[in-house]
Amino acid sequence: MKTDDLIQALSTDLPPASSRRLDRRLLLCLIPAGVLVLVVVGLWLGFRPDLLPAMRGPTFWAKAAYTAVMTVAGFWLLARLGRPGAPVRAPLVLLGLTLAMVGGLAMFELFAMPMPQRMPAVMGDSARVCAPNIAILSALAAPVVFWAARAFAPTRPMLAGAAAGLLTGGLATTLYGLHCPENTAAFVAVWYTLGMMLAVSGGAVIGRFVFRW
After folding, report:
1. 204 contacts 165 by C-beta, under 8 angstroms
2. Of 14, 17, 59, 172, which shows the fewest CB atoms inside 10 Å?
3. pTM for this one?
């Protein structure tokens, strides 16, 4: 019998656990994780000086909506992967549609610009530090999220770890937006997404060991 088949067989004999209780545990862990990231953003990076005026405009909330949806997709995907046999199609569709929408908006924005403005729109003023900063903030939230997720019983540890990485990456990127003044869709589509994908990659590696049976 293959290892995956053995895990699947064992998981069918596990006593049923309350899905609401497990989801609540994971959801509640986002509070200390978010507070930790928020404190580090404030003390290390600093909040953008025009934060209050920016919050009165649509760009700030558009960025926050993108990263918040990615956080929701990560939470939903992790909750599904943590239950043997649970379907993952719906969270994957949400993830794919969100990425496609943001990518399409970025392409539309770039094609509407004169050629000399396109590269500055992509690079902004902080391209070199954006993704690494997001990865570092995600790493700060990861221990809390992975600890809470150990209550689940994933049969695909790397995929569950990647989902946990997406959850921490989305949370960290949302709070990073309180510091980042970049306001083009192209910048967000490239560098915010890259930062979250770094968290996903790291989460997959961690999940291979943390979620191992």
Report:
1. yes
2. 14
3. 0.89
